Amino acid sequence: VRPRLSYNLEEEQLGFQLLSRLIALQARVNELEGGSGTPAEIEAARIELQEQESFLENLIQLQAQYGISNYFGI
């Protein structure tokens, strides 16, 4: 996921920010699982990642349900 330097619609910016956040959370989970985190930190990071993924999935489902085009490539 990379920002586009040319004109971006607000919806594209939102999509980029959501996906960028998920990638950062996944990297954090991987880092913690690699040995730098306690079991409690790892579990908290996993829960946060799952919640964010769920939110994005629900958003995409709502867009499809109401015929709203999206910028997530789906």
Write the layout of secondary structure elements.
Elements: H1 10-36, H2 39-65
Can you put this structure into words, describing what you see?
This protein is an all-alpha fold. The chain contains two helices and no strands. The protein is flat and about 40 Å long.
Shape estimate: flat
From the structure provided, what is the oligomeric state, counting identical versus distinct chains? single chain
In DSSP terms, counting alpha (H) and pi (I) runs of 4 or more, how many helices?
2
Beta content comes to: under 5%
Helical residue percent band = over 70%
**N to C succession of SSEs:** HH
Q: Characterize the largest beta sheet: strand count, sense, and whether it forms a barrel.
A: none
Supply Rg. 15 Å
- Low-pLDDT runs of 5+ residues are none
Which structural class do the helices and strands define?
mainly alpha
Distance between the termini: 15 Å
How many β strands by DSSP? Answer: 0
Mean pLDDT: 84
